[in-house]
Design brief:
It is built from ten helices and 25 strands. It is of the alpha/beta class and 483 residues long. A hairpin with a 2-residue loop joins strand 13 and strand 14. The mean pLDDT is 93. It binds flavin-adenine dinucleotide.
């Protein structure tokens, strides 16, 4: 028996676990992936998790949950999530940017107004470039640094500014608009700092972390959650708790809710899951940032020098984010076949909304994920514009030739940004599709809450990682203080 079980030791789970532990609660984190917990002064993480030049998410990776997801038409991609302590944030591109504060105008204003969100963004970071300047934090757990070392990043920045795009000195400025600038990253001394290092490590002696253990279902006494069941290498297990906090990520959190009887009653009955609470919004409204890549031939052969983080500058133009990746994907992701270098063009405010669904009553079955990218003409039009813009800047940069046009030809092939969010979203009591209230508490239940990217009430228009951390910190504080 513990006070709090945190299901999933990913980005949000690590933040919530540390916050509950600091408040004096006995906390158990249950994580399905392997656990490398760097206690103070002793870093046991393997080099492929710390090396910020790579994302260890290739086909042989031991750190991923490679779920097949439909993108558009009959096309599917592997929608990878991190499956290791630190979660997706332990294997990601380390792009750690704030969303513009205007994104939060659609969040519940009682607890998530612009001023509060800005205060929490400050609280999570130690910005090594801006220090405690206005709108920045200098004492938080997450180091934030910027570096433009890769030739393509330098060339793209130069070419973007020469073509008339505003140079943005600070992508984290609260009213940042369109332009091009250096990417803030959660990197220290060339190492990716996941929330396991930033948040959990300093309180490691106060938290029980149970690795390689998959939670299967929540246990209820009436509407009150009393624990979880799951399985590990030794077989089934049960853990009881006063409170359960879900942080299994935007795919697995709604899936776990459904397998526990919380979801659309018709869907649950169809696969034989007894209904605990009819909440039709579970698994609905999932958002991502669909991305199309343009490939090119570099005019000079790579010199083998250190390229640093995968993404060092981005350009924003309306709904579009352009990402000149610093190396080809086969260099960034071990295990992929040889590829040409690429520029990503992502739609950051798409209409498209997807779903996560259960396929059977077996809690270990793989969820059905459907992104429905590019379902609307407006989304397709915006991406076409972004591709034209990226191509022009790249062509003018003189570092690239033979640039592909991915919209020419019969097949349009959007991939995702792996920025999944909003699949168990927050909202008011009269919002029929809201799954959690403004504090993250699951409607119609007691003792059960969500802190991860599933609870976002609306998608953010930037990479979500910094917002996941900010929101988990805020939600955990609110949940400790009485909900
Ligand atoms: C490859 C990749 C690259 C990305 N790059 C960027 C980037 O550069 N910038 C950016 O802003 N965002 C990026 N993202 C997105 C960002 O990392 C995520 O939005 C964020 O980490 C999500 O945090 P989370 O806590 O919601 O979920 P996660 O961090 O995914 O955590 C979920 C955790 O729950 C565990 N879990 C799941 N089910 C169970 C279960 N049943 N029992 C026990 N444990 C369970 C998982 O193993 C995982 O550790 C990237 C994502 C990926 C996958």
């Amino acid at each position: 028996m513990v006070d709090v079980i945190i299901v999933g030791g990913g980005s949000a789970g690590c933040v919530a676990a540390a916050t509950f532990a600091r408040a004096g609660a006995s906390v158990m984190v249950i994580e399905v992936g392997p656990v490398f917990l760097p206690a103070a002064g002793h870093d046991s993480r393997p080099p492929d998790l710390t090396d910020v030049r790579r994302m260890p998410i290739g086909p042989e990776s031991p750190y991923t949950d490679p779920i097949s997801a439909r993108t558009t038409g009959d096309r599917h991609v592997v929608a990878t999530r991190g499956r290791v302590l630190g979660g997706s944030g332990a294997v990601n591109g380390a792009y750690f940017v704030r969303a513009p504060l205007s994104d939060f105008d659609t969040w519940p204003q009682d607890l998530w107004d612009r001023k509060t969100v800005a205060r929490y963004y400050n609280r999570i970071e130690a910005d090594h470039d801006f220090g405690d300047a206005d709108h920045h934090g200098s004492t938080g757990p997450v180091p934030v640094t910027r570096s433009i070392s890769a030739p393509i990043a330098q060339a793209f920045l130069h070419s973007g500014v020469a073509s008339g795009h505003r140079h943005l000195g600070d992508l984290n400025a609260p009213t940042v608009g369109d332009g091009i600038g250096a990417v803030p990253s959660n990197v220290r001394d060339g190492q990716r700092i996941s929330m396991a290092e930033a948040y959990l490590s300093p309180v490691a002696d106060r938290i029980t972390v149970r690795g390689r253990s998959q939670v299967a279902r929540l246990l209820f006494d009436g509407d009150r959650v009393i624990g979880v069941t799951g399985r590990d290498d030794d077989g089934p297990f049960v853990v009881h708790a006063d409170r359960v906090v879900l942080a299994a990520g935007a795919v697995r959190t709604p899936n776990l809710l459904m397998h526990s009887g919380i979801g659309h009653a018709d869907t649950l009955r169809r696969v034989g899951i007894p209904v605990v609470q009819h909440l039709p919004g579970v698994g609905a409204g999932m958002a991502d940032h669909p991305e199309i890549t343009i490939t090119y031939l570099p005019r000079t052969a790579p010199d083998g020098s250190d390229r640093g983080t995968p993404l060092q500058v981005v350009l924003h133009s309306g709904p579009i984010e352009i990402r000149p990746y610093t190396s080809s994907f086969d260099h960034l992701i071990p295990g992929l076949p040889p590829m040409l270098p690429a520029i990503g063009v992502a739609h950051m405010t798409p209409d498209a909304r997807g779903t996560v669904d259960v396929t059977s009553d077996d809690p270990f079955s793989v969820p059905n994920v459907d992104h429905r990218y590019l379902d609307t003409a407006a989304d397709r039009e915006a991406l076409r514009g972004g591709i034209a813009l990226a191509t022009d800047i790249l062509a003018a940069s003189t570092v690239a030739s033979d640039i592909t046009d991915p919209m020419v030809g019969p097949k349009v092939s959007p991939g995702g940004s792996l920025h999944t969010m909003c699949s168990a979203r927050m909202g008011a009591d009269d919002d029929v599709l809201a799954v959690v209230g403004s504090t993250g508490r699951v409607r119609g239940t007691r003792g059960l809450s969500v802190v991860d990217a599933s609870m976002f009430p609306a998608p953010v228009s930037r990479g979500p990682h910094a917002t996941v951390v900010m929101a988990a910190q805020r939600a955990a504080d609110l949940q400790i203080n009485g909900d």
